[in-house]
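ok posting inputs for the manganese (II) ion job
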Amino acid sequence: MFEKRYPGHSSFFQVRNVHIGKGFTIIAGPCAVESEQALLELAALLNNGAGLLRGGIFKARTSPYSFRGLGEKGLAILEKARENYDLPVMVEFLDQEQISLYAEKVDIVQIGARNMFNYPLLRAAALSGKPILLKRHFSATLDELLYAAEYILELDNPNLVLCERGIRTYETRYRNCLDLSAVVLLKQITHLPVVVDPSHAAGDSSMVEKLALASVCAGTDGLMLEVHDNPIKALSDAPQAITSGQFSQLKVKIERIKSFLL
Ligand code: PEP
Ligand code: MN
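and the output
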Protein backbone atom coordinates (compact mmCIF):
# COMPACT_ATOMS: atom_id res chain seq x y z
CA MET A 1 0.00 0.00 0.00
CA PHE A 2 0.96 3.65 -0.54
CA GLU A 3 3.78 2.75 -2.85
CA LYS A 4 4.37 6.30 -3.90
CA ARG A 5 4.14 8.32 -0.73
CA TYR A 6 7.91 8.52 0.10
CA PRO A 7 7.86 9.71 3.74
CA GLY A 8 10.98 11.54 4.86
CA HIS A 9 11.28 13.33 1.54
CA SER A 10 9.45 16.49 0.41
CA SER A 11 8.43 16.96 -3.19
CA PHE A 12 7.79 20.22 -4.96
CA PHE A 13 6.88 21.27 -8.46
CA GLN A 14 6.47 24.35 -10.55
CA VAL A 15 3.30 25.84 -11.98
CA ARG A 16 4.73 28.19 -14.57
CA ASN A 17 6.93 30.50 -12.47
CA VAL A 18 5.48 29.52 -9.07
CA HIS A 19 6.70 26.71 -6.80
CA ILE A 20 4.36 24.53 -4.79
CA GLY A 21 5.99 22.63 -1.94
CA LYS A 22 9.05 24.91 -1.85
CA GLY A 23 8.52 28.13 0.07
CA PHE A 24 4.99 29.24 0.82
CA THR A 25 2.36 29.45 -1.91
CA ILE A 26 -0.85 31.43 -1.88
CA ILE A 27 -3.67 30.65 -4.28
CA ALA A 28 -6.38 33.30 -4.20
CA GLY A 29 -9.39 34.43 -6.14
CA PRO A 30 -13.14 34.30 -6.24
CA CYS A 31 -15.16 31.16 -5.72
CA ALA A 32 -16.51 31.67 -9.23
CA VAL A 33 -15.49 33.87 -12.14
CA GLU A 34 -18.41 36.28 -12.44
CA SER A 35 -17.42 38.93 -14.98
CA GLU A 36 -14.35 40.10 -16.85
CA GLN A 37 -14.24 43.45 -15.11
CA ALA A 38 -14.54 41.97 -11.61
CA LEU A 39 -11.90 39.31 -12.22
CA LEU A 40 -9.38 41.65 -13.83
CA GLU A 41 -9.78 44.22 -11.07
CA LEU A 42 -9.32 41.55 -8.42
CA ALA A 43 -6.32 40.01 -10.21
CA ALA A 44 -4.68 43.45 -10.27
CA LEU A 45 -5.10 43.70 -6.49
CA LEU A 46 -3.91 40.14 -5.83
CA ASN A 47 -1.01 40.42 -8.22
CA ASN A 48 1.78 40.96 -5.72
CA GLY A 49 0.26 38.89 -2.91
CA ALA A 50 -0.92 35.68 -4.49
CA GLY A 51 1.20 33.23 -6.44
CA LEU A 52 -1.74 31.74 -8.32
CA LEU A 53 -5.19 32.92 -9.32
CA ARG A 54 -8.17 30.66 -8.71
CA GLY A 55 -11.65 31.03 -10.16
CA GLY A 56 -14.38 28.48 -10.67
CA ILE A 57 -16.05 28.25 -14.07
CA PHE A 58 -17.88 24.96 -13.50
CA LYS A 59 -19.35 25.07 -10.02
CA ALA A 60 -20.45 21.91 -8.21
CA ARG A 61 -23.32 23.53 -6.31
CA THR A 62 -25.40 21.65 -3.77
CA SER A 63 -28.54 23.08 -5.38
CA PRO A 64 -28.81 22.88 -9.18
CA TYR A 65 -30.68 26.20 -9.06
CA SER A 66 -27.61 28.09 -7.74
CA PHE A 67 -25.14 29.88 -10.04
CA ARG A 68 -23.13 27.14 -11.72
CA GLY A 69 -20.42 29.17 -13.39
CA LEU A 70 -19.69 30.84 -16.73
CA GLY A 71 -18.10 27.81 -18.36
CA GLU A 72 -15.99 28.52 -21.43
CA LYS A 73 -16.63 32.25 -21.17
CA GLY A 74 -15.12 32.18 -17.68
CA LEU A 75 -12.05 30.40 -18.97
CA ALA A 76 -11.44 33.15 -21.53
CA ILE A 77 -11.61 35.70 -18.70
CA LEU A 78 -9.08 33.75 -16.64
CA GLU A 79 -6.76 33.54 -19.63
CA LYS A 80 -6.94 37.29 -20.00
CA ALA A 81 -6.09 37.76 -16.31
CA ARG A 82 -3.11 35.42 -16.69
CA GLU A 83 -1.92 37.35 -19.71
CA ASN A 84 -2.27 40.74 -18.01
CA TYR A 85 -0.81 39.84 -14.62
CA ASP A 86 1.37 36.79 -15.25
CA LEU A 87 -0.55 34.80 -12.63
CA PRO A 88 -0.90 31.06 -13.26
CA VAL A 89 -4.55 30.02 -13.10
CA MET A 90 -6.23 27.14 -11.29
CA VAL A 91 -9.62 25.80 -12.40
CA GLU A 92 -11.78 22.97 -11.09
CA PHE A 93 -13.11 20.43 -13.58
CA LEU A 94 -16.07 18.24 -12.78
CA ASP A 95 -15.89 15.55 -15.43
CA GLN A 96 -13.61 13.91 -17.97
CA GLU A 97 -15.10 15.81 -20.88
CA GLN A 98 -14.19 19.16 -19.29
CA ILE A 99 -10.66 17.86 -18.74
CA SER A 100 -10.25 16.78 -22.33
CA LEU A 101 -11.64 20.06 -23.63
CA TYR A 102 -10.08 22.60 -21.28
CA ALA A 103 -7.24 21.24 -19.09
CA GLU A 104 -4.68 22.26 -21.68
CA LYS A 105 -5.67 25.90 -21.19
CA VAL A 106 -5.15 26.07 -17.42
CA ASP A 107 -1.99 25.90 -15.35
CA ILE A 108 -3.19 23.62 -12.56
CA VAL A 109 -6.29 21.44 -12.37
CA GLN A 110 -8.36 21.45 -9.19
CA ILE A 111 -10.20 18.29 -8.17
CA GLY A 112 -12.92 19.37 -5.78
CA ALA A 113 -13.84 17.73 -2.51
CA ARG A 114 -16.96 16.11 -3.96
CA ASN A 115 -14.89 14.43 -6.65
CA MET A 116 -12.06 13.05 -4.53
CA PHE A 117 -13.66 9.62 -4.84
CA ASN A 118 -14.26 9.96 -8.60
CA TYR A 119 -11.47 7.65 -9.76
CA PRO A 120 -12.07 7.97 -13.53
CA LEU A 121 -11.82 11.76 -13.09
CA LEU A 122 -8.60 11.42 -11.08
CA ARG A 123 -7.16 9.26 -13.86
CA ALA A 124 -8.21 11.71 -16.58
CA ALA A 125 -6.67 14.59 -14.63
CA ALA A 126 -3.45 12.64 -14.12
CA LEU A 127 -3.23 11.73 -17.81
CA SER A 128 -3.71 15.37 -18.83
CA GLY A 129 -0.15 15.85 -17.56
CA LYS A 130 -1.18 19.04 -15.76
CA PRO A 131 -0.27 19.75 -12.13
CA ILE A 132 -3.15 18.84 -9.83
CA LEU A 133 -4.55 20.18 -6.56
CA LEU A 134 -6.55 17.40 -4.92
CA LYS A 135 -9.04 18.43 -2.25
CA ARG A 136 -9.90 16.09 0.59
CA HIS A 137 -13.52 14.95 0.53
CA PHE A 138 -15.39 16.23 3.59
CA SER A 139 -15.92 12.66 4.76
CA ALA A 140 -12.63 11.13 3.66
CA THR A 141 -10.15 9.55 6.01
CA LEU A 142 -6.52 10.38 5.41
CA ASP A 143 -5.94 6.90 4.00
CA GLU A 144 -8.74 7.45 1.51
CA LEU A 145 -7.18 10.78 0.53
CA LEU A 146 -3.79 9.14 0.09
CA TYR A 147 -5.26 6.36 -2.03
CA ALA A 148 -6.94 8.99 -4.21
CA ALA A 149 -3.51 10.63 -4.54
CA GLU A 150 -2.05 7.27 -5.57
CA TYR A 151 -4.50 7.14 -8.50
CA ILE A 152 -2.67 10.18 -9.83
CA LEU A 153 0.86 9.25 -8.82
CA GLU A 154 0.65 5.76 -10.25
CA LEU A 155 0.02 7.28 -13.68
CA ASP A 156 3.36 9.02 -13.34
CA ASN A 157 2.02 12.48 -12.72
CA PRO A 158 4.11 13.61 -9.72
CA ASN A 159 2.93 17.22 -9.75
CA LEU A 160 0.36 16.89 -7.04
CA VAL A 161 -0.59 18.96 -4.00
CA LEU A 162 -3.11 17.88 -1.36
CA CYS A 163 -5.62 20.35 0.07
CA GLU A 164 -7.28 20.15 3.48
CA ARG A 165 -10.58 22.07 3.26
CA GLY A 166 -12.46 20.96 6.35
CA ILE A 167 -14.41 17.83 7.17
CA ARG A 168 -17.88 17.11 8.48
CA THR A 169 -18.27 16.48 12.16
CA TYR A 170 -21.31 16.73 14.44
CA GLU A 171 -20.73 20.51 14.77
CA THR A 172 -23.18 22.70 12.90
CA ARG A 173 -22.03 26.20 13.91
CA TYR A 174 -19.50 26.42 11.11
CA ARG A 175 -19.46 24.98 7.60
CA ASN A 176 -16.78 22.32 8.14
CA CYS A 177 -14.21 21.52 10.78
CA LEU A 178 -10.68 22.44 9.67
CA ASP A 179 -8.59 19.37 10.42
CA LEU A 180 -5.19 20.76 11.29
CA SER A 181 -4.11 17.40 12.68
CA ALA A 182 -4.40 16.18 9.10
CA VAL A 183 -1.93 18.83 7.96
CA VAL A 184 0.59 17.88 10.64
CA LEU A 185 0.23 14.16 9.96
CA LEU A 186 0.19 14.37 6.16
CA LYS A 187 3.49 16.27 6.29
CA GLN A 188 4.90 13.36 8.31
CA ILE A 189 3.58 10.46 6.26
CA THR A 190 3.81 11.68 2.69
CA HIS A 191 6.26 13.62 0.57
CA LEU A 192 3.47 15.58 -1.07
CA PRO A 193 2.96 19.29 -0.49
CA VAL A 194 -0.14 20.15 1.54
CA VAL A 195 -2.10 23.39 1.37
CA VAL A 196 -5.03 24.53 3.47
CA ASP A 197 -8.28 26.11 2.33
CA PRO A 198 -9.65 27.88 5.40
CA SER A 199 -12.43 29.51 3.36
CA HIS A 200 -14.45 26.36 2.71
CA ALA A 201 -13.67 25.07 6.19
CA ALA A 202 -15.00 28.17 7.93
CA GLY A 203 -17.81 29.12 5.61
CA ASP A 204 -17.60 32.54 7.22
CA SER A 205 -15.12 35.30 6.43
CA SER A 206 -14.80 36.27 10.11
CA MET A 207 -12.98 32.99 10.81
CA VAL A 208 -10.71 32.83 7.78
CA GLU A 209 -7.75 34.88 9.05
CA LYS A 210 -7.28 32.98 12.31
CA LEU A 211 -7.68 29.59 10.65
CA ALA A 212 -5.19 30.64 7.99
CA LEU A 213 -2.63 31.68 10.60
CA ALA A 214 -3.19 28.48 12.59
CA SER A 215 -2.57 26.53 9.37
CA VAL A 216 0.76 28.30 8.95
CA CYS A 217 1.71 27.17 12.46
CA ALA A 218 0.62 23.62 11.61
CA GLY A 219 3.15 23.55 8.78
CA THR A 220 1.06 24.03 5.65
CA ASP A 221 2.94 24.66 2.41
CA GLY A 222 0.42 27.27 1.40
CA LEU A 223 -3.12 28.55 1.49
CA MET A 224 -6.06 28.71 -0.82
CA LEU A 225 -8.26 31.71 -0.09
CA GLU A 226 -11.52 32.87 -1.57
CA VAL A 227 -11.33 36.59 -2.19
CA HIS A 228 -14.03 38.83 -3.64
CA ASP A 229 -14.21 42.57 -3.86
CA ASN A 230 -17.84 42.80 -2.97
CA PRO A 231 -18.46 39.66 -0.91
CA ILE A 232 -22.10 40.48 -0.19
CA LYS A 233 -22.79 40.37 -3.91
CA ALA A 234 -20.76 37.21 -4.64
CA LEU A 235 -22.73 34.70 -6.70
CA SER A 236 -21.33 31.74 -4.80
CA ASP A 237 -19.90 31.22 -1.32
CA ALA A 238 -20.53 34.88 -0.44
CA PRO A 239 -20.36 34.48 3.37
CA GLN A 240 -16.81 33.13 3.35
CA ALA A 241 -15.13 35.51 0.89
CA ILE A 242 -12.60 37.97 2.29
CA THR A 243 -11.93 41.30 0.57
CA SER A 244 -8.65 42.13 -1.11
CA GLY A 245 -7.96 44.53 1.78
CA GLN A 246 -8.37 41.71 4.29
CA PHE A 247 -6.22 39.53 2.07
CA SER A 248 -3.37 42.09 2.16
CA GLN A 249 -3.56 42.33 5.95
CA LEU A 250 -3.51 38.57 6.24
CA LYS A 251 -0.41 38.40 4.04
CA VAL A 252 1.45 40.70 6.45
CA LYS A 253 0.44 38.54 9.43
CA ILE A 254 1.49 35.36 7.63
CA GLU A 255 4.94 36.84 7.05
CA ARG A 256 5.20 37.76 10.75
CA ILE A 257 4.20 34.29 11.91
CA LYS A 258 6.60 32.67 9.47
CA SER A 259 9.48 34.77 10.77
CA PHE A 260 8.77 33.49 14.30
CA LEU A 261 8.64 29.91 13.09
CA LEU A 262 12.03 30.02 11.37
C1 PEP B 1 -14.00 25.46 -4.39
O1 PEP B 1 -12.79 25.45 -4.16
O2 PEP B 1 -14.58 26.41 -4.96
C2 PEP B 1 -14.82 24.33 -3.94
C3 PEP B 1 -15.98 24.04 -4.51
O3 PEP B 1 -14.29 23.69 -2.89
P1 PEP B 1 -14.62 22.24 -2.29
O4 PEP B 1 -14.48 21.28 -3.43
O5 PEP B 1 -13.59 22.09 -1.23
O6 PEP B 1 -16.02 22.30 -1.74
MN1 MN C 1 -16.21 28.17 -3.12
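notes: The first strand starts at residue 13 and ends at 15. The beta strands are 13-15, 18-20, 25-29, 52-54, 89-92, 108-111, 132-135, 160-164, 194-196, 222-226.
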